[in-house]
Specification:
Elements lengths: L3 E2 L1 E6 L4 H5 L6 E4 L4 E4 L3 E4 L2 E3 L5 H18 L3 E7 L5 H5 L14 H14 L4 E13 L2 E4 L11 E4 L5 E4 L4 E3 L2 H14 L2 E2 L7 E2 L2 E12 L2 H6 L7 E10 L6 H4 L3 H25 L14 H5 L9 E8 L6 H14 L3 E2 L7 H37 L1 H39 L4 H28 L10 H35 L1
Parallel strand pairs: 2-6, 2-17, 7-16, 7-17
Antiparallel strand pairs: 1-18, 3-4, 4-5, 8-9, 8-12, 8-15, 10-11, 13-14, 15-16
Helix pairs in contact: 2-4, 12-13, 12-14, 13-14
Length: 505
């Protein structure tokens, strides 16, 4: 498997109105015509993508996310997550707010990706797609199902499947058929997400949220459906994780107290664990050391995305205000370390598909074995029926009776033909050649009439055969059968001659 680095983008939001009113200075700038950012006077960072304060939602999506959608359709797991200080524009960029009220140009990553996914699906009519979505938040280290709020936190568990991928057991997955259905579920989940107002952010996310779109695809097999044959279809299951992380907070700036203060502690604790994972994965010297994924729920959920088998884009959002210099610098440092993380993306063939292949092959073998057994049983049964003396005698008797009936019919025809030939001989004037032919038929008819009485006298004695041994009876029946076949052949020839004569005359 080829290793690829995690792609890292940095987006700098514009100064807010209140920051302008308080005369905050810009401390983070994009170096023109480069992928570099300078913070303060001389600290320079290089990233894969850099977006300044005038960047648009469309620009961010086309540059960072469009390739991920194509990889998703190809069968890879992909992830995009927004990281940064509270109030730096993560939710706006990812598109996790109230999307229904957002104008087209301001829509974030998730709504745009949903539209493109369904557009790609409509352009692939030869493939069957099944799409499911789930929406989970991590609030104070508890998992909450945003699509099924009645689900208890005790019923949601993080597990690893047989391929090592992280899954959430107990989470509701809704099957969808259109982009509108997905948008409706996204809006419903966003409304249920924990948010609150702080001094730093009017709509501050109080939890980490993961919106997941799962796609199962299989090639349509129309030829197999026509001839009814078994044909294995390979299933590919891929997922797109959209992760909106809660922002790091300093209590002195947010002014949080009580419940908000407890939330801040849990948020910062999870982000610290994420930072430690990024540091461990991004440090070549610690490549073989332990990676602390289990220190927090969010790091366990991002295990596939950081150092795993997914294609990942990390979007770091920073504030340009000098008031947030320290937080912005820390965010850039973590983003810079994340560039050293290397993943090993793999195509995700469904385990169920592999098992189906094995089962279909086994079914094919069993069918062949069953057909062979049925053929063997049929031959054995036929041999058994023919081999039984009573059955063999009964079969021969039936054949003799059938042939005798046919012989009686032919005998009647011979008598009529003989009568007709006599009349023709006595009454019709014929030339010499016709008279010779008529005489030949007359003689042949007389010979057949002489044979008939003796043969049927012999056949009438069949009723006495039951008194002798069975093998004698079988031989007698065979002889009678042969006689009847000879007589039937003679009668058939006479009938043909008669027909030819009538038509020729």
């Amino acid at each position: 498997m080829e290793e690829i680095p995690v792609k890292v983008a940095v987006r700098i939001r514009p100064l807010l109105c209140k920051e302008v009113l308080h005369n905050h200075q810009v401390c983070v700038r994009v170096i023109p015509n480069t992928q570099q950012i300078i913070i303060g006077r001389d600290r320079i960072f290089t990233f894969d993508f850099v977006f300044g304060k005038s960047s648009t939602q469309d620009e961010v999506y086309n540059t960072c996310i469009k390739p991920l959608v194509l990889s998703l359709i190809e069968g890879y797991n992909v992830t995009v997550f927004a990281y940064g200080q509270t109030g730096s524009g993560k939710t706006y960029t990812i598109g996790g707010g109230h999307v229904a009220s957002v104008v087209e140009g301001q829509k974030g990553i998730i709504p745009r990706a949903i539209q493109e996914i369904f557009q790609n699906i409509s352009e692939n009519p030869s493939t069957d797609f099944k799409i499911k979505v789930s929406y989970i938040e991590v609030y104070k280290e508890d998992l909450r199902d945003l699509l099924e709020l009645e689900t208890s936190v005790k019923d949601l568990h993080i597990r690893e499947d047989e391929k090592g991928n992280t899954v959430i057991v107990g989470a509701k997955e809704c099957q969808v058929e259109s982009a509108d259905e997905v948008m409706s579920l996204l809006e419903m989940g966003n409304a249920a997400r924990r948010t609150s107002t702080t001094q730093m952010n009017e709509h501050s996310s109080r939890s980490h949220a993961i919106f997941t779109i799962s796609i199962c695809q299989a090639e349509k097999n129309t030829e197999a459906a026509k001839d009814g044959s078994w044909s294995s279809r390979q299933h590919i299951v891929s997922k797109f994780h959209f992760v909106d992380l809660a922002g790091s907070e300093r209590v002195t700036k947010t002014g949080n107290t009580g419940e908000r203060f407890k939330e801040s502690i849990q948020i910062n604790s999870g982000l610290l664990a994420l930072g430690n994972v990024i540091s461990a994965l991004g440090d070549p010297r610690r490549k073989s050391s332990h990676i602390p994924y289990r220190d927090a729920k969010i790091t366990r959920l991002l295990k596939d995305s950081l150092g795993g088998t997914a294609k990942t884009v990390m979007i770091t959002c920073v504030s340009p205000s000098s008031f947030n210099f320290d937080e912005s610098l820390n965010s850039l440092k973590y983003a810079n370390r994340a560039r050293n993380i290397r993943n090993k993306p793999t195509l995700n063939f469904s385990p169920e598909s592999d098992r189906m292949d094995e089962m279909e092959f086994e079914i094919k073998l069993l069918r062949e074995a069953l057909q062979s057994q049925q053929a063997s049983n049929s031959q054995t049964s036929q041999i058994h029926r023919e081999g039984t003396p009573d059955n063999r005698i009964l079969s021969l008797e039936e054949q003799v009776a059938q042939l005798q009936g046919e012989c009686l019919g032919y005998q009647h025809c011979i008598e009529e033909a003989f009568t007709l030939l006599v009349e023709l001989k006595d009454t019709v004037s014929l030339n010499q050649k016709q008279q010779q032919k008529l005489q030949e038929w007359f003689n042949m008819t007389q010979e057949v009439r002489k044979v008939i009485p003796s043969s049927f006298r012999g056949s009438c004695g069949m009723g006495n055969l039951e008194e002798g041994p069975q093998h004698i009876r079988v031989n007698q029946l065979k002889r009678e059968l042969k006689k009847c076949q000879v007589h039937r052949h003679c009668f058939y020839k006479i009938t043909c001659l008669r027909t030819k004569f009538i038509w020729g005359h």
